[in-house]
Amino acid sequence: MRKVHTPEPEGFEDFWACWMPHRRRTDGRGDARTAYRKHILDGADPKDILDGARGFLRSLTDAERPYIPLAASWLNKEAYADWAEDERSYQKRLAEVQARKNQPADVIQMRRPEPMSEEERQRREQFVNTVRRQEG
Q: Does the pLDDT value for residue 2 go beyond 80?
């Protein structure tokens, strides 16, 4: 007997694409899909879940990566609610930095001075000597 494949809820494909590269070997798409569907039916916003996952996964240190929770466990803890706003504020700051980089700078590029002729150098030297004598 073959199991009937249930359709994936809205936004699950994006969530799984985000989670998949970081998942543990024992993590399963089916359990994650079931947990995701449950939270969507309970009123969770798919964008909150996706943003929360992005923020959580981006914040993992190398030492924490081996201990990443299963996707279904992470969803069932409603951890996405904790991470969604953090991710949105991070993305906002990133966009502001990028916008500043794309704006023209208020800096004028300086030109390298032309080498002084011997006559200009002598006049400058006389001027400096004169000022030094006056200061005295």
A: no
SS3 content of the chain, % helix, strand, coil (to 5): 65, 0, 35
Does the global pTM surpass 0.90? no
- The whole-angstrom distance between residue 88's C-alpha and the CA centroid of its chain comes to 10
Cβ of 106: how many Cβ atoms within 10 Å? 5
Is residue 86 a contact partner of residue 55, using CB atoms and an 8 Å limit? yes
In the chain, the amino acid numbered 33 is: R
Average pLDDT (109-135) is 88
CB distance 18 to 50 below 8 Å: yes
Report domain extents, the chain. 1-105
Residue 104's SS3 state is coil
Question: Between the CA of residue 127 and those of 6, 85, 89, what are the distances in Å?
Answer: 89, 65, 59
Spatial distance between the Cα atoms of 24 and 73, rounded to a whole number of angstroms: 12
